[in-house]
Amino acid sequence: MLLLAIESSCDETAVAVVRDGRQILSNLIASQIDLHAVYGGVVPELASRRHLEVINPLVEEALSVAGVSAAELEGVVVTRGPGLVGALLVGVAFAKAYAYALDIPLIGVHHIEGHIQAIQLEKEVEYPFLAVAVSGGHTHLYRVDAIGEYRLLGRTVDDAAGEAFDKVAKMMGLGYPGGPVIDKLAASGDDGGIVFPRPMLQKKNCDFSFSGVKTAVLNYLQRLESKPDEKLIGQIATAFQIAVVDVITKKTLRAVEAEGLSRIVVAGGVACNSGLRKKFAELSIINNVETFFPSPILCADNAAMLAVAGDYYLSRGFTSPLDLNAVSNWPLEQLKYS
Ligand code: KG4
Ligand code: ZN
User: Fold this and answer.
1) How far is the CA of 327 from the centre of ligand 2 (A)?
2) pLDDT tens digits, residue range 113-124?
3) pTM of structure
4) Looking at residue 338, what is its pLDDT?
């Protein structure tokens, strides 16, 4: 099937054209980072307005880059949730209108299902596998038995990993989004001997907590007698990243063993993190498991990732009605297509 995919759950408007849920013909992203950076985070109302401005031309461009006409499209897939409801609604309303006008089926998919299945665009990963979804809103571990079959094993009880990166960067005046900045600062590996706590690491369950590390960084900054220089900022960022990566990788490996699985898929924006990628690669060899990461462009919010599940559902006859609504809060394990 030739699908048009639309993503607008947060601060990226993204449109892709994908064939058979595997072949990316175009995958465009209009980032709003500049718009929100001055506020230190995403302003929902501004995000919705910007989505509205760019969605139409971005769809035209995605078709043009793909070299296909609208008349050739066989379906529209859109992020239905979770996310900012006003932002989601722009994509959902556009997708409904487009599908109606072209008289082709529509399917609304789960944003995190998109992230988890993105890997299949680059490499066929056999089911079952363990997915670790690490983004601005999620740090969740799922057992994945098929497209549409997700069992929640554990999740963060407070901040998501990406949220912690963003908040810590903000505390240190490093700007938004914090993940990529901290990642860059941490590249030297010099933590200056600073050690931040690893919350929940001792607990046997699969849950995470990141607010404690964040507070530890805040306390560290508040105890300093003078403004930290560039070197110290780099060391704090490094120590923070090492702590977060340590918890995510070790708890994921424990879960994979407990579930008797041998494959891990790391998904979501935080999966771009070079420290996380490196540590998973090291521990995977020691633990005899395979770990898969999509390319960075497919880890961050994009629309091509939606087409894997979208194609699967549409080709099996599952469609969404034209009165489809966006959902801001939608647990992945409650997915049901019928
Ligand atoms: O998946 P995503 O693009 O959007 C959501 O669904 O939330 O994830 C965004 C999150 C942000 O918190 C951002 O700081 C984080 O991913 N992120 C990173 C890196 N690149 C993006 N975190 C750590 N290291 C990175 N290189
Ligand atoms: Zn995302």
Assistant:
1) 15
2) 999 999 999 999
3) 0.97
4) 54
CA 179 vs CA 57, 97, 221, 268, 289: distances in Å? 29, 35, 19, 12, 26
Nearest CA residue ID for atom 2, ligand 1: 269
Q: What is the pLDDT of residues 183-219, one digit of tens each?
A: 999 999 999 999 999 999 999 899 999 999 999 999 9
Q: Has domain 2-117+298-334 been given CATH number 3.30.420.40?
A: yes
For the domain made up of 125-293, give the CATH fold.
Nucleotidyltransferase; domain 5 (3.30.420)
Please provide the average confidence, as pLDDT, over all residues in the chain: 97
Which of 8, 84, 135 to probe ligand 1 with, by most ligand atoms within 8 A of CB?
Answer: 135
| Domains of the chain, residue spans | 2-117+298-334, 125-293
Atom of ligand 1 nearest to the CA of 162: 12
- Where do runs of H (alpha helix) occur along the chain? 33-37, 44-66, 85-102, 111-117, 161-171, 178-185, 211-223, 230-258, 274-287, 296-299, 306-315
Q: Which residues sit with their C-beta closer than 6 Å to ligand 1?
A: 10, 135-137, 162-163, 165-166, 177-180, 183, 268-270, 272-273, 300-301
